[in-house]
Amino acid sequence: MKKLLFTLAITFLSIGFGKAQDKFRADYNYICFYDSDTKSWSDWTPAEHTLIFNYNTNNDIVHFTAKGEMITYRNTGSKDEGDTDGNHYQTLELIDEDGNFIRIQLFDDPTIGMKIIWEDQMIQFAKV
């Protein structure tokens, strides 16, 4: 009986810990770029981008670009959250297809959108 209870307990725990977060989609229709030399942002440019969060059991992110490319960002498991000027966001640490470590800062408000950050470079996406 103890073996049966132990086996059932392990089974339920492994199902709970192995479960991926719910998959969701974020669509953006504008993009701008940060210039680290001038420390300024470009003007917003129309560009359709779609990201699928928690794409698989590793909670990776798939990015469909305006050019029709599909980029996968590998989740490292590092996640944080905070507020900037009263706007809540989550920050995720990822690895791009070239092996570069990047951060994605995802705001709750789609008009602020999302930033992809690596080294001293940033790209911001928004839905306007």
Helix vs. strand class: mainly beta
Mean pLDDT: 87
Main sheet properties: 8 strands, antiparallel, barrel
How many angstroms separate the termini?
60 Å
Range of helix content? 10-25%
Low-pLDDT runs: 1-19
By DSSP, the count of extended strands is 9
Over all CA atoms, what is the radius of gyration?
A: 18 Å
The global form is globular
Strand line-up across the major sheet: 1-3-4-5-6-7-8-9
- Spell the H/E element sequence: HEEEEEEEEE
Instruction: Assess the beta-strand content as a share of residues.
Output: over 45%
> Counting H and I runs of at least 4 residues, what is the number of helices?
1
Give the oligomer, counting copies of the same chain as homo and different chains as hetero.
Answer: single chain
List the helices and strands and how they pair.
Layout: H1 2-18, E1 24-35, E2 40-41, E3 45-53, E4 61-64, E5 70-84, E6 87-95, E7 101-107, E8 114-118, E9 121-126
Antiparallel strand pairs: 1-2, 1-3, 1-9, 3-4, 4-5, 5-6, 6-7, 7-8, 8-9
Question: What would your notes on this structure say?
Answer:
A hairpin with a 5-residue loop joins β4 (61-64) and β5. This protein has 1 helix and 9 strands; from the N terminus they run αβββββββββ. The longest helix is centred in the first third of the chain and has 17 residues, at 2-18. Helices cover 13% and strands 54% of the residues. It is mostly beta strands and 128 residues long. The radius of gyration is 18 Å and the shape is globular.
